Amino acid sequence: MCPEENPLSVPVERVVVVSGLSGAGKSTALHALEDLGFFCIDNIPTRVVAQVLQECRAGGVALVALGIDVRVRSFLEDFGDAIMALKGDPSVHLSVLFLDANDTALLSRFSATRRPHPLSTATEGEERGAMALIDGITSERARLSRVRVRATHVIDTTVMTVHDLRKRIVQMFGPGVGRALRLRVRVLTFGFKYGSPTDADLVLDVRFLRNPYFEESLREKTGLDEDVVAYVLSDQETLGFVDLADKLVAFCVPRYEREGKAYLTIAVGCTGGRHRSVAIGVELARRVQLATGFEVDVVHRDIRRDTGLDRATDPDIIGGGGWRGTGRPPAEQKRDG
By residue range, what is the domain housing residue 121? Predict the structure, then answer.
């Protein structure tokens, strides 16, 4: 079979061409698109766009973002032809995003970053470089005029922060535009005695709730065992806490997603990370998934930690609380046996 007769495995579902003035936020836009699941390629010559998309199709990539601006130099002359070719492809849903800002904002941003303008890198001398910056912006604006007139979306970032721009990108191309929700939600259970997780967005401390550790028959078990779950969730204070936590998280999750957050980690911690946090974390994840429709992953960080470690310094045990029998703790006797 000839190469041109070989059917492409997956059609490109969406292509976003990102262009605009240097300093207007193209890098921020591409990063936001990448977080939304787009395969992003920056500074791509226009003449290889068709080949790149063909390779993306062959690799099963359905969402593609291409950065094209004055850095592609003479290839910019072919921008119109490249766009017309994409528009003529029925398998491509094409958007052209152009980022703009006024000269004052661009001058301020270049001054803050101390980076040279792409069209002024060949100049020499501090005075000439300073003069060339506004000249470079003016020249770039003129050269990109042919790109701007073909844009399907234009964003003026003059008074925007990076967070504002990211939010606008999510609104234009994110979950609310006919695709599945992208926010990744994870419930992480842990033990405070082993340190708090550094990547948590929300931390719920459940050490004040009734502790199965003090029940001899439950001590060696975990929050995944049915009798431990029944013990933990039968307590009215625990149920009240889970109800309130569920409402808090269900309220926050869609708003985090709306703001363009890509990952959300909800940490639930007890003393050792084996009983209360595990049982409550699983129940909270179940409720949040039902309430929001988000897929929720559950990770138990400390559930397999050694249960024979000294608990004398545990913050929810008054006056210690370690092994109170004669001889050594049962866990040590097991290891010796």
Answer: 3-173
